[in-house]
Design a protein that fits this description.
Elements: E1 2-7, E2 13-18, H1 26-32, E3 51-56, H2 58-61, H3 66-72, E4 82-84, E5 98-101
Parallel strand pairs: 1-5
Antiparallel strand pairs: 1-2, 3-4, 3-5
């Protein structure tokens, strides 16, 4: 199991525990945890409605792919540690990370 923290738009933080052996994406775990993530494209990195910002632990997650960066760069608000939750797999690399849900991507 992997533990990480999610900060919502109101600044409230909640620790999430997720299985790291089932191949889930961060987007799937956020939706299952009832966070208001649209995920319009279903995780194909085509819509950027699962935009998050990695507040802590971004170095462990590696760099965003070119496809992911193309979507992120089209957002009205884009941060140096912005990522698409659909492109991050639940793994030990997420242990201790803090992610923040971002703007227009939530319901």
């Amino acid at each position: 199991m992997v533990n990480f923290t999610v900060e919502d738009l109101d600044g409230n933080r909640q620790e999430i525990e997720a299985p790291d052996d089932m191949g889930f994406s961060l987007m799937e775990i956020l939706k299952a945890s009832e966070y208001p993530i649209l995920a319009t494209c279903g995780g194909m990195a085509l819509c950027a409605t699962c935009h998050i910002e990695v507040l802590e632990g971004s170095d462990e997650l590696g760099q965003a792919s070119d496809i992911e960066l193309d979507q992120l760069e089209n957002l009205p608000e884009y941060y140096p540690t912005s990522r698409l939750a659909c492109q991050i797999r639940i793994s030990e690399m997420l242990e201790g990370a803090v992610i923040k849900l971002r703007g227009e991507d939530v319901i």
